[in-house]
């Protein structure tokens, strides 16, 4: 059966986190993740391994049932294939190349746009038929501008911060006294930190970039970049590379560490939370203290709040809207549905993260945090209720605030979109929306999924940009295609035989 039908709710797919038992087979992206396909009505589902990093089989086709017997020959072929897909140079070699490149005269500094590499003089002839550009000293310090953003939406989704968001993050972290920033999938933040140090106006900050995009390895030294996969906490450079992280996390000189992660938005929350916990655990062990937590900022769409809090309960969602240069659809300052859905989730005390007044944020003294201008405090709920940036309204029958587009429906006994499939049980399942069964027999009833009843992800309402697919709640970054929003579900595009 080819499982590309996201509406098929007769089964669900969950990630089974590694428990230290049998090691998972590896694809070119490190250890694969174990998934469990749970069919309707059955307790135990069939398990299979698939790539942790790629949600499209075109990018990584690894598939293996957990109970498959894999022949020696196939294992060898797999190993050879994995090796052939690794970067052409080691981090050490990239550093040596960078040093040589930096010492070249300006007119010999060339970057091949086709191959996305800095070229040394001896390599020029091999790239003579390719498009290449000159590289100024300023460009060399801004790799995120020089490199073409990976637009592979299903795997890398390289959306780069606007100056507004990057500077807000940087200024906030500096003001909070952090001197070491662990940049997980945030290359632009890392380069701004380095540029800020060059200004010599502030106390210098250290940064370490962990990213799967090894093109960044060309620009950084060994203690500034690790080729890393955040879905399985895999260091492609092995022990030497994870030792770099360990050294960075050590606060021996009193320099406070903070981790900032901006994973691809379609990524599964559970493995991400697991990797981040492992990093936090390493930090804790080094600190030799059990009652402190590594300060974290996880940047992700608001509708993942329940999932993130399930994985990392100490994180709180802030109202700040993070926006991106190369994402035309969501920009700060727009209203209604055009606002960016991306927020900060942090264990830093919300009252300490001062959101810019000039952009319309204000402090709510009751909630003890900064909120967006349209997020009005509701005296009845005793909180600032809005999640999506629009002004929510209180429904006295439901006893809570709801989205502005919702109306109270007498027959459903709750607020919903005016054109919702009305009447519980009359038109399919109220839990997941399927027309094939009723709520009582919903196979997803007890699973940890975003419930349609909640204010987050009613699949009828397009504006929340989320598409709930069985147990895998896949948030999907809507792609602007003309006037319509194309929703990309993921993970279920895996072919399950
Ligand atoms: C949404 S972008 C964030 C970029 C960030 N906003 C910035 O401006 O620096 C996601 C980043 O995560 C990286 N990434 C994607 N998949 C990854 C993975 N499996 N492991 C580590 N990094 C990954 C991408 O290369 C990209 O840099
Ligand atoms: Zn893979
Ligand atoms: Zn080339
Ligand atoms: Zn409030
Ligand atoms: Zn209310
Ligand atoms: Zn209501
Ligand atoms: Zn109704």
TrEMBL record:
Residues 359-430 form the CTCHY-type domain. Pfam families: N6-adenineMlase, Zn_ribbon_GRF. It comes from the Eukaryota. InterPro entries: Mlase_EEF1AKMT1/ZCCHC4, ZCCHC4, Znf_CCHC, Znf_CTCHY, Znf_CTCHY_sf, Znf_GRF. Keywords: Cytoplasm, Metal-binding, Methyltransferase, S-adenosyl-L-methionine, Transferase, Zinc, Zinc-finger. GO terms for cellular component: cytoplasm; nucleolus. Its main location: cytoplasm. It is found in: Cytoplasm. One of its GO terms (molecular function) is rRNA (adenine-N6-)-methyltransferase activity. Residues 429-443 form the CCHC-type domain. Residues 27-69 form the GRF-type domain. PANTHER family: RRNA N6-ADENOSINE-METHYLTRANSFERASE ZCCHC4, ZINC FINGER CCHC DOMAIN-CONTAINING. This is Zinc finger CCHC domain-containing protein 4. It comes from Amphiprion ocellaris (Clown anemonefish).
């Amino acid at each position: 059966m080819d499982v590309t039908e996201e509406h098929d709710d007769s089964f669900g797919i969950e990630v089974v986190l590694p428990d230290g038992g049998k090691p998972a087979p590896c694809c070119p992206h490190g250890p694969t993740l174990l998934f469990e396909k749970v069919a309707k009505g059955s307790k135990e589902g069939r398990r299979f391994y698939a790539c942790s990093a790629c949600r499209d089989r075109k990018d990584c086709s690894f598939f293996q049932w957990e109970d498959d017997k894999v022949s020696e020959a196939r294992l060898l072929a797999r190993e050879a294939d994995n090796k052939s897909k690794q970067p052409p140079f080691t981090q050490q070699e990239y550093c040596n190349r960078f040093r040589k490149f930096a010492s070249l005269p300006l007119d010999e500094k060339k970057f091949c746009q086709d191959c996305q590499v800095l070229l040394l003089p001896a390599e020029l002839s091999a790239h003579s038929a390719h498009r290449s550009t000159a590289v100024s000293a300023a460009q060399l310090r801004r790799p995120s501008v020089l490199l073409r953003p990976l637009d592979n939406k299903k795997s890398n989704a390289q959306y780069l911060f606007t100056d507004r968001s990057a500077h807000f993050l940087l200024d906030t972290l500096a003001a909070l006294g952090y001197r070491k920033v662990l940049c997980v999938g945030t290359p632009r933040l890392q380069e701004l930190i380095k540029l800020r140090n060059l200004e010599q106006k502030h106390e210098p900050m250290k940064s370490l970039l962990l990213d799967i995009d090894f093109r960044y390895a060309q620009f950084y030294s060994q203690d500034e970049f690790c080729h890393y996969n955040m879905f399985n906490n895999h260091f492609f450079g092995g022990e030497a590379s994870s030792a770099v992280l360990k050294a960075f996390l050590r606060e021996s000189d009193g320099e406070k560490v903070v981790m900032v992660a901006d994973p691809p938005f379609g990524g599964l929350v559970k493995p991400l939370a697991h990797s981040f916990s492992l990093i936090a655990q390493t930090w804790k062990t080094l600190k030799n203290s059990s009652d402190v937590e590594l300060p974290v900022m996880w940047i992700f769409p608001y509708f993942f709040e329940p999932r993130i809090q399930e994985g990392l309960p100490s994180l709180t969602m802030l109202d700040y809207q993070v926006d991106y240069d190369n994402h035309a659809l969501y920009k700060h300052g727009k209203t209604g549905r055009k606002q960016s859905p991306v927020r900060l989730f942090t264990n830093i005390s919300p009252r300490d993260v001062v959101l810019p007044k000039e952009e319309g944020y204000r402090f709510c003294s009751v909630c003890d945090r900064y909120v967006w201008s349209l997020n009005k405090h509701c005296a009845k709920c005793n909180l600032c209720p809005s999640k999506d940036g629009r002004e929510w309204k209180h429904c006295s029958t439901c006893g809570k605030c709801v989205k502005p587009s919702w109306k109270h429906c007498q027959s459903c006994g709750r607020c919903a979109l005016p054109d919702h499939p009305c009447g519980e049980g009359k038109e399919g399942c109220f839990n997941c929306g399927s027309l094939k069964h009723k709520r009582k027999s919903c196979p997803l009833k007890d699973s940890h999924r975003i419930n349609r009843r909640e204010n987050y992800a009613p699949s009828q309402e397009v504006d929340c940009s989320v598409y709930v697919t069985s147990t895998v709640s896949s948030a999907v970054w809507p792609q602007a295609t003309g006037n319509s929003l194309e929703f990309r579900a993921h993970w279920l595009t895996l072919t399950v035989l």
